Amino acid sequence: MKNVFFRYVFGLYPLGLVLLPIVYPCGNKTTTSIIMDYRNLIGSPISEVHEIISRKINQTCLENHTHTCEQNKEIGSIHQMVCSIQRRRLHFTEFQPQLTILLKTIQKSLGCDCELGRSAVHKRDTTQNPRRRKQIQKRLCKLKNLIANIQSCFQKFHSKEVT
Amino acid sequence: MKPLILTILLMVQPSVFGQSGSGDDETMDEAIEPMECLSHLSRQLEQSLVCNFNRDISYNITVQVCGEYVNFKGCMNMTMDDHDNRYVLNTKEFLAVEKYEIHTFTTSNRYISQVIDLRLIIKPMAPYNVNASYSEKHHASYITFDTPYSALPSKDYLTEKLVHSVAFRIQNNGQWEYQNITYQPLKIEGKYLKPDFIYEVKSPIPNGDYFKGYWSDWSNVATFKTPAVHKNPDKSVLLYTLSPAILILLLIIFAIAFVRWKENIVSCLWPSIPNPKNTLEQMYKKQGRGHNASFNPETFGDHNIHMVNGMEEKVIGECLLFPSPADPPDTQERSQASLHLKNELPNVVVSQAQDQWLLSERCNEDGADPQATSDIEGFSPGITTSGSNPSNNEPARDSVCALNPQVGFQVGQATRRDEAYVTMSNFYKTQ
Question: Are residues A104 and B70, on separate chains, in Cβ contact within 8 Å?
Fold first, then answer.
């Protein structure tokens, strides 16, 4: 009996506390601070980055439904999309500074970090190879879709919390 | 169990003193005071962090700013400015959302750290190109200026979040007056201006809900001269030209009126009427001319009485001249009645003149008074004169050969009245 008691008190609950940050990677940021950060630091830059990417695309992009904004889990959805951009190494030198600052700001605002595993490799996007150019366009489309989804998810979260 | 716990506690104790930065030989002279820092955040302009010590630092210190930057996580060293107490760090790596720690190290490896939030200590860049101009047309001055944030291609952190303050005063004299503005240009009405105002502009951050900070430096000074007296020139010119003209016109009118007063104006406004009563009568009676004719014997109003032949004339004259004695009262009454009737009816025509004329003709045949003839010659058949002049009637009365004084008397009686008529009913006689 005593063994069972001590196992529960000093076993499971500490384990749960340790595992909690893994289950909820986004931590101690309040809704109010996230909304204020969105209004002042994220809202305008994300629109500008979306516009820059759209100007570089020469084709019509197919809509990507891999990442969606889940109801009542907007923060988690945004975090997943940001980490997806980081993981896929979707970096382009032309608008790299703006994109990096944007992604970092979102991460810090949400209080979430992405586990990249290995450092992101910056791939060059300037090449005369037509197959390469097609690949670049495809990647740009993916990036554009992700940015658009992040933006719409933020707007959903903002409108839900403000009303 | 108890010794184990005590051992653990003893081992933990020394680690408590590791982090606060206080050393063994701490003295007042070498104490490091916290710094006062100012920041500048921007997406497109330069970002900076400037920190000042409150007093002179006599020894070398190292200042580091540690936290997460855009591309890495770590610390960056601040560089000392020309001023000894000032440390500066210019970098685009600052993240506005992040809190940073400032570590200040001395040569004896002591340090203090303080956490700063760059959003709350922003000092904006000062405005420039202040321009003040006075508009005669609007009687106001307009102040415009440029800020580094308004000229950027895209929206920055501080765009549209700054409240600017304009200070103005008489040049080198007097107290500064301040005016907060949010939109340009700032318009100052002429009534508030004094000559030789100078203007300065600075821009603070409002105590907003996200970005906070301090006033920027003052901009350059702009001056202009305002006119001393503010009057509407158009209106004054009009007043000065019109008022003498109006005065002269009034004088001319009064002079004309004074000179021609008695001659023209009085006679025009108040004409003299010699006999107002008769004039009014004539005006009144004239209305009856040309009105309806009535064949009623008592109110016979036929104007056009033509000359009758001699026989009829004679018969009528004899009737007039020789009425029956019993009749006089009746005829008199009747005549009076008829006269009365005549008096009442406005359409009644005076036929007295014609009767007189008839009588005179009769009398003329018998050798009548030529005076009467001459008097009556003025009357022509068919003409009615309302209210025939009694003066004319009197000689005619006398010339009725004194044959029938009653008739004359009757006629005379009638003529004495204002409206005397002799009608056909007078001649009507029941046998």
Answer: yes
